[in-house]
Write a structure and sequence with these properties.
By secondary structure, the protein is mainly α. It contains 11 helices and no strands.
Amino acid sequence: YLLKLSGATKFEYSVIKNLYETAKSKQTKGESIQMEDIRPEQKLLKRFQLAEREIVIQMLKDRRAIEFYTEKIGYFYHDIYNAIAQYMVDYQSHHDQIHVSEIIGDISITDLPNKEEVLNEITTLSMERGHPPFSEAQFNEYYQTIVEERSRLNDKDGLARAIAGKPPIEQAKIIKDYYERRQNTKATTKGD
């Protein structure tokens, strides 16, 4: 059954087996199984993360996207996208053409602390189809979205509105994210 499920869902057999064994052990212990236990990696992407994601997808295909990132954006909030973007800037300075397989090979021998996540994301993004080719106008829209979201995310009034009416645990998470973003912004600004 697990093999059939693997074939139907395109998930690796080992992943499905691991999830099955985890669920089975929780069931024997009498614990309830919740969806967030099964798919913790599935997160809601925020507006600026979608813009960052689209830019990274184009950076894996087109040198103009890398130049746009270098000239206008400089950093992403999403750690994995930021690591990919920084690598792509470095890669472009040493290579005339972009070859995803070469990028994956190069990163796989580095000592990046989040190497596996970066490799998985590059693989996923490079295999996606249906994205339009690089367009300066579209990238300016992405850039505008990122600028707006950066200013909104660093706005204390926005923080107060974001936590209003939320349960204490969610308020704590929002406040923690806010201060982490402020630290990232300060660190990035000092680095420029």
